[in-house]
Amino acid sequence: MDIQKYISSGILELYVYGALSEKESREVSRVLKKYPEVKTEVEEIEKALLTLSAATAPNNAEHLIASIKEKLSKPTTTTAPVATPVRTINWITYSGWAASLLLLIGLFVFFNRTNELREDLQAANARNIQMEEQIANAREDAEKAEELLAVIRNRNVQRIPLKGQQVAPEAFASVYWNTEENTAYIDAKDLPEPPRGKVYQVWSLTMQPLTPTSIGLLADFEADDNKVFSLENQNQSEAFGITLEPEGGSETPTMDQLYVLGTVAAP
Amino acid sequence: MPLFIFFRLYIYILLLRKPHFFMQQDALILELQNGNERAFERIYHLYSESTYGIIYSIIRDEKIAEEVLQDVFLKIWDKAPSYNSDKGRFFTWILNIARNASIDKIRSKDFKNDQQNLKTDNFVDILESKTNFSEAVDSIGLKKYIDALKPVCKKLIDYLFFKGYTQKETSEELDMPLGTVKTRNRICIDKLRAMVIK
CATH number of the domain at B121-198, please? Predict the structure, then answer.
């Protein structure tokens, strides 16, 4: 097909007018889809005719679009054109409220959580202080126990058991006597608590003649948990005894209040 | 996240407002056929002025022509799914609707008789008497074109384009062979194209 001849025949102008028969028009449509230069030609004819007819319009018709759109039938969708913006506005409003509400809830939760955390922290601090005290106590106890253990293990220490006497047959005490350091440790765990206003007094005894020498008082008996008392003893003791005396102690032992008594084994 | 959604929405609205950014002619017609109102607006923007011109050249009454123009575009909306590009151009399809609606109107009973005697005039009279043209039209060039246009061209364009006569009807009306109608008309339109395309 001679396309240039086809174009210059003038059939395309009649095609755009709609002046051809249906059969002829279908034929041109077919050619147009096949040859791009025919399509370009048709588009140019169309543009010229659009310009010419637009020039015969008495005025611009753009303003009519609004009233035409109102009358458009909606075959596929029931959404009115006005409904969309209204719905959008509602949506934006609601999302605004929803956002504020979420923010409020968020702040409330956050505030609560902060308070909980603060209380937890205070509780933890209190526990910490308690634990520290307990640790300090335990360390102190451990130190004491170690000290006592060291005393017992010392090769220069002699253990003298003191047996219960008539006043208190159940009573019992031990003396750990370090002869090198001249120190006597009194383990008074099995002595009954002294009555109010009375105090235990420890005596060093030499036998011939029987001479008692005070080596000290078991002060603060109730308060001491270990009931181990360290006293200085420079005497050549042959026996140890503990008597109950009035507060402050006595010059000589009250023999009828002798609780425990034990002799030092001969070396 | 919400910011991102709003941004996308904004872009989407922008694109919808300027459909020619993403719609080619064929796609635009397809969208119209699917009932897309934005596509309809664009089609209206592209064809309403020309359609109005065709209607007015037949009816010669601004108010009535406006009414017919609205009816024509309502028909375009309703009948769009029936348009088939195998049968002809979309512009031609619109032309036929506009001419038929206009002719129906002037034949109807409520159309006043005194307006019918204007029927003897053609598009040339409208252009010659017109003072205000839209920005899209080179009014000086167009007036020059009309002035230089041979009487036979005026008649050919009036019958074939504005009144929608067939090639055969035009041939009979002007007492001119069918082939001559075709070639003569092409010469007349070539000058118009030269004026419009330049």
Answer: 1.10.10.10
CB contact under 8 A, B49 and A54: yes
Q: What is the pLDDT along chain A (267 residues), one digit of tens a residue?
A: 899 999 999 999 999 999 999 999 999 999 999 999 999 999 999 999 999 999 999 888 888 999 999 888 765 554 444 444 444 566 777 888 889 999 999 999 999 999 999 999 999 999 999 999 999 999 988 888 888 888 878 888 888 999 999 888 899 999 999 888 888 989 988 889 888 889 999 999 988 888 899 999 988 888 777 788 888 888 888 999 999 999 888 888 988 899 999 988 876
ipTM value greater than 0.90: no
- Scanning the structure block, which residue is given the tokens 């383990």? A187
Q: Tell me if A68 and B157 make a contact (CB, 8 A cut-off).
A: no
**Cβ atoms within 10 Å, residue A204:** 24
- B contact test, residue of A14, A45, A52 with most B CBs within 10 A: A52
Regarding pTM above 0.95, the answer is no
Q: Cβ contacts of residue B36 below 8 Å, gap of 6+?
A: none
Cα pseudo-dihedral B78, B82, B83, B87, rounded to 10: -150
**Domain definitions of chain B by residue range:** 24-117, 121-198
Residues of chain B found within 8 Å of residue A26, distances taken between Cβ atoms: 86-87
Decide if A14 and B167 are in contact by the 8 Å CB cutoff: yes
| Domain B24-117, classified CATH 1.10.1520.10, yes or no | no
